[in-house]
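Work Package 3 (structural annotation) set out to generate three-dimensional models for the target panel prioritized at the project kickoff. During this period the team completed the workflow that converts sequence records into discrete structure tokens, so that structures can be stored uniformly alongside our sequence database. As a representative example, we reproduce one entry of 400 residues exactly as it appears in the project archive.
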Amino acid sequence: MKAPLHKSRIEDDIRVRAYYGKYIFNSHFLIFLTIAAGVFLYSLLGMLSMMEPSIYLDIIAALLMSFTLLPKYRPLLKEADVLFLPPYEKHMKRYFSSMDRYSVWLGIYLPEIGLAISLLLLRVGHPGWVMALFAAMSVLLYIMAFLIRRDAVNSPVSQNTVISLLIIIHFVSLLSLLIHPAFTILGLLLIGGLYFWVQKKQHKNLDWPKIIDYEASMKQKYYQYVSMFTNVRQASKQYKRRKYFDFLLRRPKAGRFNKDHMYEYLFRRTFLRDNDLPMIILRLLLIFSVVIIWVDQLVLSVIVLLFALYVIVLQMSQLYTAQAYLLWPKIWPVKREYIQDGYIRFSHKMIFMIALLLAVIFILLHPVYFYIAAVFPLWGYMLNSYFSKNVYKKERLLSD
């Protein structure tokens, strides 16, 4: 007997997440997470033990929760559904209720982490019953935020508007509760008012094209996140021109317009015009920089920066596999060795510049141990050489 539609869709989504999860949460990443979480918790507890009660801790806790209490709604609809499912809309309550439950649990880990950190902050200056009230209010806001985001999909209200309003309401509700528990009523009125406003804006029937487009955008965002760690074939590649990068794309001189040098220029052009890759690398640099500044511990700073180079090299290696088999070699057919040499020259230069930037950050934080920074360019070169050879090895195995 064929499984119900909602069950098969959920199982397919879980299968995809499990498939990419084994690449994201590999042994290297799990070791890094364990070390980083341990040091973060140790430094946070040490810092809090020396702090006095302050409104700033309350603001940080409320702000942290206001950004984490944003559950995503996943209807798991497909493009072809717009042709076959609308006539059965009245009989799909079971399908959508299953999607509601799945969506709620799908994003629960982020609020749980945020709540744990917030409660640690609130231990300074707040009794246990206020912390319990804060946690209960967070749970209520999470459920209401999910209902609001779900209903907004089937309304003319944009998701950006809903997210902005939810962040503001979450922050005001939680901070006012911490100022005085009687202000809990303010948060209830605000979140209830937004819920009824979105309800009023809802279409009477489902806007199938809009909901399907929404699901497609959510799936694309998930693939973009996964692409930070591994190749994703399902992710559609987009490109755009960023004028502030144009100075890096000066046309090669006539003497370098040949098979020996042209592919290096083309890889650089693809990288700078890629819709996601430059911004992903910039975000990774920012995240890892914040981590080492927060921790400010020598050994962990070295480990974090070495791991940062590992993740960035993985990102760069996707550029070769994504582009070396597309239009370029068909327009300008050359031996694969020229394409490989062009990529390795480009990637070595990129990784060297990134390693130098990380080395400068390390030296600013630990000037006494400046000589350790020499490890980062060397590590980047070794990683890039290793992963490039791996790509070429797979290419040779598949070419016969």
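Residues 248 and 272 are 8 Å apart (CA to CA).
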